[in-house]
Structure formats: C-alpha cells, structure tokens
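Q: Hi! First time asking for a complex rather than a single chain. Here are the components, and I think there are two in total. Is that enough to go on?
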Amino acid sequence: MGKSSDKAAGKAAEAPVQPVVLPADCRLAEVSALRGQLLDALKAPSSELDGAGVERVDGTAVQLLVAFCRDAKKHQHAVRWLGASDALREAAALLGVDRMLDLPAVRPA
Amino acid sequence: MSNGGLAQFQQVFIEESLEGLDMMESSLLALDEGGDAELVHGIFRAAHSIKGGAATFGFPEMSSFTHEAESLLDEVRSGKRQIDSAIVELLLRTVDCLRSMFARAQAGQPLNDEVADGLRRELAAAMGRGEPAAAQARRALDQADAWTIGFRPHPGMPAGGNDPLRLIRELGELGRLDVSAELDRLPALDALDPTECHIGWALQLHGPVKRDAITAVFDWVEGECDLSIEPVHGVSQAPQAAPAATPKAVPAAAAADAPRAAAGAASAESGSVRVSTDKIDGLINLVGELVITQSMLDTFREGVDASRLAMLEQGLAQLARHTRELQESVMGIRMLPIASVFNRFPRMVRDISQKLGKQVKLELVGEQTELDKTVLEKIGDPLVHLVRNAIDHGLETPEKRAANGKSDTGTLTLEAFHRGGSIVVEVLDDGAGLNRDAIVAKAVERGLIPSGEGLSDEAVADLIFQPGFSTASVTTDLSGRGVGMDVVRRNVADLGGTVVVRSVAGKGSTFTITLPLTLAIIEGLTTAVGEESYIVPLVSIVESVQVKADAVRGVVGGGELFRFRGEYLPVIRLHEVFGCAGAVRDVAEGLIVVVEAEGGRVGLFVDRLVGQQQAVVKSLEANYRRVQGVSGATILADGSVALIVDVAGLVRLQSRRKAA
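A: Yes, that's all I need. Here is the structure of the assembled complex.
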C-alpha cells in the first residue's frame, strides 16, 4: 500500500477537546485570541464552551460566537455550553441572537 | 377590521403583487426586443393593481411610488410618449425596487430607502416634474407609537470605540424592543476579522417615542453606520398572524423544512403555496373515496365469516390504493413548476451579457416541469452561479466567436425534465468549453494533483468542483469555470442531488444537476447493523461489494482502506460511528456499500442488506436532536425507527480526518 494511503486514514477517533473558556472580560481586546481558540475547536467533531465566568461582553464577542455557532451548525459540529453568565445571556438577547447561540437557560450552580 | 385580519390580506396582496411584478418584468423585456405594443396595456394594468392594493392594504409609500410609474406608463399607453430602451431600463429598475419594497414589507422594515427615493425622483423627472409631495409628507412624522429601526454598523465601528450592544441597550430603555439580527453579511469564522462588525439589526421599538429621542441614541455614531428610522405600519402584525392564516397543510412539509431551514435565507422564502383548484378537487375526491372504503371496512366490525373474506380483501386493496394516491396528491401540492425559478434568468442574462459585451440568446425548455417547493427555493442560487459562469467564462465575445466560425450570438439553454424519480436541470452553452490545459495547470499549482498525466477529461472537468480550485484569481476568461463551483456542488448535495459537467473543447459545456423530486420521501437501501437498521439514500450508492478479509487493511495512525476498482477507499464502519451493539466485525462476513458524495467516495461497512424501500423522512432535530452522520429518521413497517445515513456528512468527516 502506498504511503499516501497511510496518510489518508489519518487520526481515527479523537479524544474530546478541552472546553473553550470565555474570559471574564470578553470584549474587543480579547476577540482575536478567542477566534483562534474557536477555530481550533471546530477541528474536532464537537466542542464545549464555558461562558459562566463572563462578566463583561460586547457586540464583537457576541458576533464571534454567532459566527462560530453558525459554522458549527453548517458542519454538523456539536456545540455544548457548560454555562453562561447573566451578562452573556443578556447581551445575546439584546442583540437578537439568543436562540441562535442556544445558551443554557439557567446558569449552573 | 383588526390588524390581524388586515395582515392576512396583506400577505395575499404581496404574493399577487410579486407575480404581477414578474409579469411586468417579462413584458418589459419582450418590449425591449421589439415586442407588441399591446404588452404596455398588461404592464399598466399590473402597475395599477399594485398601486390600488398598496393604498388599500396600508402601504402608502408603495402606492405613491407606483403612481409615478403608472403615470409614465399611461403616457406610453395613450401614445403621448414613445417607449425606448431608456424608459424600459427605468421601469425595470422600478420593478426591482418594488420587489425589495415588498421584501421589506414582509420583514416589517421601513419601505422607503435611498434607491426608492432616487427612483421616485427619476420617474418624476422623466415626467417633467420635481420632487413629489409624498416624499415631503413622509418626513413630517415626528412622533409615533412604534418605530422600525434599521441599524447596520459599518465594519470599523467597534474599532472606533462604539459598541452596537451599548446602542441597542440604550434603545431598549426608551421602550419595548424587538430585535432581529441580520447575519447575511457575516463571513465564516475563518474569514472573519473579529474586531469588525458585520451584523446588522432590524429593530422594532414599541412605545410613544419621539424621533429625536431615537436619533439622540445614534448621535455619536453618525457616519459609522447605516441607519433608517421609520414609523411602523400595520404590516408589523403580519409575522404573528400569517401562520394562522396559512397553516402548513402538509405534515411532510414540516419534516422536509426543519433540517433545511437555512439561517438568514428563511426570511426571503414565503411560507405558503398557491395551489390550483384542480389539485384541491382531486384531494377532496380522494378523501371521499377513503371515507367510502372506511365505511365498507367498518361493516366487518361485527365479525368476519369466510363468505365475506373476499370483500375484506377487496376493501383492504382499495384502502391501499387510495392511501397511495392520497399521498401522491398531497405531495403534489408542494410541487410547483420550475418556471418560477427560470423566469428570473431572461433579465439576468440580459444584464450580464450587456455588461460583458457578449451576445447571448437564452432558451428555456421544460419550464412546466414540477418539483418540490423546498427544492425549488434552494436550487435558484446554484443555477444563478452556473448561468453567470456560463456567460462570463463559457461564451466567447462576438469577435472571438466569428473568428472560430460560429455565429455572433451564443446560445445558453436552461432545460428541466423528469428522469426516473429525479428531476434533471441542465445548463448548456455553445461556448468555448472547459480549457483542459488551464485547469490542469491551475490544479497542479494548487497542489490538488501532481500532474495531468493519465487523467481522463471527465476527471479533469471534475477538478473545478474542488474547494481549493475556486479562488478569486480564477476569473480570467481562459482559465475555465472556477468561481464557487464547490459551493454549487455543496448546495446541490445538501438537497440530496448531484452535479456533473460534460464539456467539448470549442463546442461548449453542459452542467447537469440531478435532484430528488422531493425531500420528504427518499429512495433508500435498508441495511442492518447489529440490531439496528440504517437507510442509505439510493442516489449516493455506487455499488455494494463483499470483500475478503485481507482486502481491508489498517493503516498507520488508525483507519482502514480497501481496494475498489483500482483506487483505495477509506472504510467507515457504521457500527463504530453509531456505537451499535452485536454488529458483525469480521470484514468477510459483512458487506461494504460504496457511496459517493461531494466528489469523494467511501465504503460503509454494514452487516447485511435488507432491501430497497421508500422512506418518509422525519426530522431527527425536531423530535430529538441533531446527530452527526444522520440526516433524518423514518419508521419501518414493523414500527421501529431506522436512521437515514447522511452520506455527505460522513464523507466530509472522513476528509476532515484526512486533513487532520
């Protein structure tokens, strides 16, 4: 069997990745770094997001999450929220994307 | 009349008007090509109906706008003015503008925009008048009980220190706010500059608020966003009232729609179908037959004796026949002629060919071919892509054509027809055909293939569908069709269809899209995996083969390959993907079903084949949740649930692993 075929099979079952933890200050200054993490997360078949610790959030961060969730949906990549703070949920609702992000209804204790 | 009642009629008015606009457009195009002057009367009547209806149903802006166009048409009709291409052009733009006004009316957004204002002035100028009074009256409104606000930040707004979230929060302090985000311009994550803003918002603010209070919120971002503020009209009720007014008559529709409700695109699709009376009469007739059969079978309630067995059998046969006919008729309600998609092309071809300085004759064949409404709505964009590419890259300029001994005018044919259980849509051109050398060169440059040697013409043509092939730099007229062909293939695959290209150098190209007639029912092959059943859509199956144990080999880093007709294909063991217990593990005891999707082939390893059957697709998402590798579910005759394998998803998953 040729070498190229060996490469083709690649990694089979991948271990679940580390959850992406959103920073407490989730605003413009952080979005570029966060985008990198989300792009990495998309490479796995599924990912977990933790937004429980978000204290401050702005439109760019919410937009980034929307783009991520939309891409995930398109590629049938499952996204699970481990938690979402009140600040995050309020921002998503104000910007009309709460259903799209599918945030958990209540913050887990 | 309550607002809800008005909204119900508004919806019908909008649908009828859109049909009127289609008619206006095709008549204008015919006029432009020297058509009968009688056409002007038809155009005038359509404009007149829209004007009258708009005034009645609470769209004064649209009524006054159409009035300008109607006046112009009236002068043409009465012979005071000669129709010329400038007037046709102006009226065509008026049609476009009205279409977008209707789209905004459906979305509950303000009807007027700069384009409408500009056109209104142009129409008035064509009539030899100044700015119409209606535009001035519009500005007079300073206070209202509800406002619609269109807010589209420019990309650089966040960098300037202004956060859309803060602005919307401030708006929310003025009154109750309904927010709808517009994501149409939001790029994919890998193309997104996260420090820029690419979302827009359509907002409705309820409460007695002055215009000044709203503009004050946006004072600081003037010049950093597009903003429109308009008092609300009755149409804002439409979204709530519409579902009650036009219930989804077909349960299958929900099943088909749910998994395919594309984000963003949904607003442009109307949720109702206009059905011919003939079809409804047919349905009522069938239901009547069913009732008769049911009452006949009912007589067996008291018990069955042997003498009446024949009658029972006859009754059951009747029931089966009527159920099948009823199913076909109900499916038929969702079937619409493809003409509604084809009709947009005469205009588009005219505009593009004028822009590119090419002469193109468009031929439409089989416009009455019917297909499922959902398929119909989704096939438009891929077709637009193919037609655009055919004119841009396929057809040559008149000079080049003449030099090659062809007629100056190129022919572009759109053809639709039924073949078996599928519908076929072809885009044919008599242009230069695909340029094999250029494609091979491009593919080698992009690292898609090592060289073009030994590749059949077919295989080379197929390269244009590769994702890496479509880049903006592939737009020269020599280098074949590159732009977004992978998107075309992806879109068609999402509908469960395929697209292939045939091309003869110097003679032209044919793109053939094959689609299932409906998304609500698929032809599938039922396979057993352990104790479970999985259905593989028939369209994606290449072959089923039994292989020897040593034909499948594991490779370094995991994964397996097997040799199939000279190429190595990855093997996906369904029992591993879906975690089925008690499945066959020995390769020699099971079967490999070779499937194809998005240009890639894989082998699915299953225990055995059970048989071929039609499966009514039920949405898994609506009833449970999305599962990777599964596109839906169906109920088998014994009442158990079988999952429908998402072949494209599995192939994608496999190629992602390959890339990893």
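A: Residues 440 and 452 of chain B are 6 Å apart (CA to CA). Let me know if you'd like any chain examined more closely.
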